[in-house]
Amino acid sequence: MPYLGNAPSAAFQSVAYQDLTGGTGTSFTLSHAVSSAQEIEVFVNNVRQEPTVAYSAVGTTLTMTGTIAATDDFYVVFQGKAVGSVSHPTTSPLAATTGNFTGNVTSSGTITASSFSGDGSGLTGVSAGKVLNVEHASVTAGASFSLTAGTNTAPNYADTALTLNITPSATTSKILVLGSFYHNSSAGNYPSTMRVIRDSTAISLQLGRVNYVGNLENTVWCASINALDEPSTTSQITYTAQIGNPSGTTVTTYFNSNYYNSGMFESFLTAIEIGV
């Protein structure tokens, strides 16, 4: 809207107010100069006083007809004085459809919204359990491994193609590792097994250990993991699914396939970073 005169320098306006409670006598100094008693409203114990009768005012001098006691609730509202500010008044509600804040937003109350965006890594003062990062990987290609002898308690493992990387945002974060792996072996009474490692450290014992069953070459077994890992680092870490031979002889094992079929199955790994 067009206007006459100088452009307004303030975005918010409020009427000036002066609290004179505690003062005594009949003469008081105003914080803003006025030209007449009609420019101000004077209240004594929340009762408005009549201009020119109960008080007079010129410049910054307010003269009361009656004597004010220190116990009186005594204040002045400047009707002709609007005080401008470029800051939103702290006691007034803010209503807006959108907003862009470049600094911190602080609230002593509750902030509600239908949705929030961002990864949450910069949030503070939030109770434990926030999800900070999610990484997922899957493979459908089958593979076979000729694994030399292991032992019942220490299988001989080989890396599969199923692997993923995740970089924790804090050393206190925990990583929830989820996975499902299809596997089998090709020799009677000799088992195959699975496990998951973080870099070179195992985060699980043997998973889904099974034996090959004669005349069931089309069978495939599924192992799963649901483990809460504590890597204590902010460097990138790698989770890898491994297939193992826990028998005392060389055995051919199959990942994501069985003796006859390959490419019919899908194995996956998911790593979820949880803030603590």
Structure description:
The protein is mostly beta strands and 276 residues long. It has two domains: 12-85, no CATH class; 131-274, Jelly Rolls. Helices cover 0% and strands 49% of the residues. It has no helices and 17 strands. It has strands at 12-19, 25-34, 40-44, 47-48, 55-68, 74-85, 131-139, 143-147, 156-166, 174-185, 191-198, 201-202, 207-211, 221-229, 237-245, 251-255, 267-274. The strands form four sheets. Strands 7, 8, 10, 14, 16 and 17 form a six-stranded antiparallel sheet that branches. Strands 9, 11, 12, 13 and 15 form a five-stranded antiparallel sheet that branches. Strands 1-6-3-4 form a four-stranded antiparallel sheet, with no helix packed on it.
Offer a concise description of the structure.
The chain folds into 2 domains: 12-85, no CATH class; 131-274, Sandwich (Jelly Rolls). It is rod-shaped and about 115 Å long. By secondary structure, the chain is an all-beta fold.
Task: Write the topology of this structure.
Blueprint: E1 12-19, E2 25-34, E3 40-44, E4 47-48, E5 55-68, E6 74-85, E7 131-139, E8 143-147, E9 156-166, E10 174-185, E11 191-198, E12 201-202, E13 207-211, E14 221-229, E15 237-245, E16 251-255, E17 267-274
Antiparallel strand pairs: 1-6, 2-5, 3-4, 3-6, 7-17, 8-16, 9-15, 10-14, 10-16, 10-17, 11-12, 11-13, 11-15
Note the quaternary state here. Answer: single chain
Q: What class would the helix/strand composition place it in? A: mainly beta
Low-confidence parts lasting 5 or more residues at pLDDT below 50? Answer: none
What letter string, H or E per element, gives the SSE order? EEEEEEEEEEEEEEEEE
The name of the CATH topology of the largest domain is: Jelly Rolls
Alpha carbon gyration radius: 38 Å
Write down the overall mean pLDDT: 83
How many domains, as an integer?
A: 2
Highest-level CATH class of the largest domain: Mainly Beta
Which descriptor suits the 3D outline? rod-shaped
Largest sheet: 6 strands, antiparallel
Strand content: over 45%
Distance between the termini: 53 Å
Fraction of helical residues:
under 10%
**CATH architectural designation of the largest domain:** Sandwich
Number of helices: 0
Extended strand count: 17
